[in-house]
Amino acid sequence: MKFKVEAMNLSERLGLIQGIAERRATMPVLSHVLVSSSKDKLELSVTDLETAMSASCGAAVLKEGSLAIPARKLYEIVKELPQGEIEFEAIGNHWVQLRTPSATFKIAGLPSEDFPAIPELSSEHLFSVESSVIDDMITKTIFAVSPDDLRRNLAGIYFQKTGKHNLRLVATDGHRLSFVERDVKSEVKLGRGVVVPKKGVAELRKIVKIAENISIGFGKNFFIAEGDGTILIVRLIDAEFPDYNQVIPEVTKSSFHVKQGEFLSALRRVSILSSDKTKSVKVTLNKGEMTLVSVSPELGEAKEVVPIEFTGDSIELGFNARYLMDVLEVIGEETVHMGITDELSPAVIKPVGEQVYISVIMPMRV
Amino acid sequence: MFFKNIIGHEFQKKALIRTVRESRISHAYLFFGPDGIGKRLISVEFAKILNCLRGESITEEVSKGERCDCHSCKKIEKGIHPDVFFVEYKGIKNIRVDQIREEVEERLFLTPFEGRFKVAIVDEAERMNPNAQNAFLKTLEEPPPDSVIILISSRPEALLPTIRSRCQLLEFRGLSEEIMLKEFRKRTDLSPDEAWVAVKLSGGSLGKALGLDKNVLSERKEIILKLSEINPKYASQVLGFVESMPTGSSSEDLEKLMFVFEIISAWLRDLVLIKIGFDEDHLSNRDLVSPIRKLAEKWSVDNILDKMKFLENAWYAVFRMNANKQIVLENLVLKIAE
Ligand SMILES: [Zn+2]
């Protein structure tokens, strides 16, 4: 392996991906970046076995080859080097030598065969989506992902194809559920639904930030996203997502419209006085108004009235205020529809308007 | 090509190959039987078969040809395959719940990284404490797809019955002495008599036989002859013998001392066998028949059994209780010589 590369290019690419390389590596090779030179470019790959990232950058390749190099060490050296070309050369025994006009570094690496095989997906399995669209879909669902280690099948966002161009994302922790669907304009290439782990979704948001459009695709075991030459690979959760449709009530006994901003800020103020653990708030509906009350034995009582369009029978319900706020913060619509049945049945919140976004929240005892 | 370097266990190998060939791969296996006879080696080979890049057809040619050198098999051999992981707790008495969660569950619940199956090999599974076993039971009840868990244990009775009942059981027995002797002689250039001693001292484990200290093994004859001739009235003889034993000051030296204990134990057992009328073929020290017969005439069975008991206590004192080795060894040699 021998090539010349611009320090800045390399440093920028390494900076994007090296965070994934494990510090406390269970396998030594996982703290390394796989550097492969072929034709006229470099391929850089890192993985922690849950996710993997690859980036490529142009280079003058003098000799093709590959080697695993300690990621952090390499990044720290390259980042401090002055602008200009660095020459890399494998000097035997898995050592690599870096040379600039004024400096030489020798770093011990590991054989490339020791590096986990990074899965690939041919371009025909990829489809393009607007970064802002996928980012918005993630924002609208990720908060509902279960943090519970014991419910592995809920520990990620469920991706499902619901029409030729329609992609749906669903997340639930058993107490609440959020689902969003968008027309992504290109053909969705996804067979059966898959669960992408939360950590992988968080990495996806990094890709979304660097490119206006990204390509995504699904292999048997992987989710792959590609944007501006950077590729993210995420291992899927090996479990079935539950049949979530039965959780979503088709109709609710009564419903009302409320201004998102008024509802959210009232909740914020009232919940300051609710206990930290449950964040419970009592919601009372009467004709034309909604009263929010929270009581804390130490701090006292908070009460606020929000005007709503409501004509049904009076009713009193309890909610985790955090759950309501999570939805209202991301709903992206001025007027919100809320449907309720009774103090034991799930409530539904959705935007009034075109977008397909539904949040289901179980009431709680107050 | 698989199982090539594993001797014996023909039935078990065939059974495992059959499960792959007939696509009846179980989510959980329990390999049980004495320590050191190849259960772990077989589990590694099984993991290779499950993930070999040469595909399912490899099972057809399992027993011929060279060892497979595809990337997957090589990585498993080196212990760096992302989907094959070992849970080992050498020296730890209790495997705790959080260790099982971190090292098994969290690595099984994602889809395979580069292989077809995720394989978790839990060595000394009986070391899981009851809570850990219960946590593990949950994984066994709802095993993630594409995963195979292999529990290895020499004491399967220490596992919860509910765990055992969820595993496909595969029992392993020690190798027969004939097979051991043949294989051992192929791999070493020891004399037939010395090879035989090594086999006798290794209880069916070829690995153990090959790992025995060759220097100590070659001194065996001398050790026994010297010990046979010590006159307990002469302190210098007793002290002289103790001085010639390994001091046990380093861990390597401690291993040697342990080996000397085993040699003495086998020799005392030979004496008992001769006393109660066994054929010479049953002895460990076949090259020392006449000095053994001579001593057997002098000592009673009870006397020898007493010495064996004393040796056992001395073993505990030295290797488990950290007693003063010099004093324990002097008393031991005195007792044996009397
Ligand atoms: Zn292979």
Structure in words:
- The complex is a heterodimer of chains A (about 375) and B (about 350).
- Chain A is α+β, with helices and mostly antiparallel strands and about 375 residues long.
- Chain A contains 6 helices and 25 strands.
- In chain A, helix 1 runs antiparallel to helix 2, helix 3 (about 130-140) runs antiparallel to helix 4 (about 200-210) and helix 5 runs antiparallel to helix 6.
- The longest helix of chain A has 13 residues, at about 200-210.
- Chain B is an alpha/beta fold.
- Chain B has 2 domains: about 10-170, P-loop containing nucleotide triphosphate hydrolases (Rossmann fold), CATH 3.40.50.300; about 215-335, Zinc Finger, Delta Prime, domain 3.
- Helices cover about 55% and strands about 5% of the residues of chain B.
- Chain B has helices spanning about 10-20, 40-50, 70-80, 95-110, 130-140, 160-165, 175-185, 190-200, 205-210, 215-230, 235-245, 250-275, 290-300, 300-320, 325-335, and strands spanning about 30, 85, 120, 145-155, 170.
- Chain B has a 5-stranded parallel β-sheet, sandwiched between helices.
- In chain B, strand 2, helix 4 (about 95-110) and strand 3 (about 120) form a beta-alpha-beta unit.
- The radius of gyration of chain B is 24 Å and the shape is elongated.
- The model of chain B has no long low-confidence stretch (mean pLDDT about 85).
- Classes of the chains: A alpha+beta (about 375), B alpha/beta (about 350).
- Chains A and B meet through loops of A and helix 3 and helix 4 of B.
- Bound molecules: zinc ion.
- Zinc ion (ZN) binds near residues 52, 54 and 70 of chain B.
